[in-house]
Amino acid sequence: MSEIAAQASPSSSPLAIVCGGGQFPSAVAYAVTRRGRRVFLFPIRGWADPEAVARFPHEWVSLGQLAASLRRMRAEGCRDIVFIGNVLRPTLWQLRLDFKTLRLLPRIMQAFKGGDDHLLTNVARMIEEQGLRLVGAHEVAPDILVPAGTLGRVAPSERDEADIARGLSLIATIGSFDIGQAVVVADNYVLAVEAAEGTDAMLARVAALRREGRVRIPNGVGVLVKGPKPGQDRRFDLPSIGPRTVEAVAAAGLAGIAVEAAGAITADLQRMIRAADTAGLFLVGAPSSRRERGP
Predict the structure, then answer these.
(1) How far apart (Å, rounded) are the C-alpha atoms in residues 110 and 10?
(2) Max Cα distance, the chain (Å)
(3) Are residues 12 and 86 in the same domain?
(4) CATH code for position 256
(5) Which residues face 160 on adjacent strands?
(6) % the chain with pLDDT above 90
(7) For 10-155, where are the E strands, in sequence order?
(8) Burial 244-283 (b: 16+ CB within 10 A, else e)
(9) Structural domains counted in the chain
(10) Can you give the pLDDT at residue 290?
(11) Which residue(s) pair with 226 in the sheet?
């Protein structure tokens, strides 16, 4: 690394963005560059969108190739690193570790013995030991955070507000088991809890339950509630919503979507609001008094 790069402050040095799938990597990259900071992308093979990353300087990487990636980050003068985008948790045996990363194998094996938060926090610790600072995407691109309040034309009813409160309370309770960030509550009745299948599949399950007559609550009742787990390291895996979420919520016959304000992200808030308005759903950023773990 050059002397100039070594002396640069984190905010003036290029930002390294490790990119999984979905819209968020490019949304974050655009938001950061609009603020006048350079970016260098490290798209993960098999996950990142080639067309989206082609617009930025980048180098493709494979899971498990930690040492080579860190060398290129240092060569580019990066001091901060962001992880953003979808990647299914691999098995340890799917990781093709490079030679230097193999030396960390005992620690990597230990990191895999737990939930996603346990794994990611341990990965973060190993990266920061190499001289890079891990930051949350929302820290460098705060525009992706969902703000507080009713965000579209449709407002939640008193019943919806009660369902939102119950949903956030439930997430706070089950989150200590590191199992999910979303629930569906309808008229004080818990219809579904997100597990490994993800939010879209959970909503499809609710839609199927309605079609089968196993849920007799009328259409237009119920809320998708999303929020971070208690104690979650918010540099990783904040809950996300988008237009597909709106489509799935509408198909499930629910009344709307509530996320913890400043605790969930969306790649294009205005597009999300328009989609909710068109579908006749409410979209709410609900305040939280919880204090969360950061860097």
Answers:
(1) 31
(2) 68
(3) yes
(4) 3.40.140.80
(5) none
(6) 60
(7) 15-19, 39-43, 80-84, 133-134, 149-150
(8) ebbebbbbbbbbbbbbbbbbbbbbebeebbebbbebebbb
(9) 2
(10) 47
(11) 182, 259
Q: In the prediction, which pLDDT does 274 show?
A: 97
Assess if residue 102 is contained within a domain: yes
Contact of 266 with 294, CB cutoff 8 Å: no
**Element of type H or E holding 138:** helix 137-140
Asked whether residue 113 carries a pLDDT value surpassing 80, the answer given is no
Q: 108-112, 123-127, 266-270: which has the minimum mean pLDDT?
A: 108-112
Round the average pLDDT of the chain to a whole number and report it.
Answer: 85
Which residues, including other chains, have CB under 8 Å from residue 58's CB and lie 6 or more apart? 19, 40, 41, 42, 43
Query: In 3-state terms, what secondary structure has residue 121?
Result: helix
The β-bridge partners of 257 are 224, 283
64 pLDDT band, cuts 50/70/90, is low
Say whether pLDDT at 295 is over 70.
no
272: helix, strand or coil: helix
The dihedral through the CA atoms of 25, 29, 35, 37 has a sign that is positive
The whole-angstrom separation of Cα 102 and Cα 212 is 50
Alpha carbon distance 226, 168 (integer Å): 7
Cα 221 to Cα 131: distance, rounded to the nearest angstrom: 50
Looking at the fold, whether 256 and 158 belong to one and the same domain comes out as: yes
Tokens describing residue 94: 């799917």
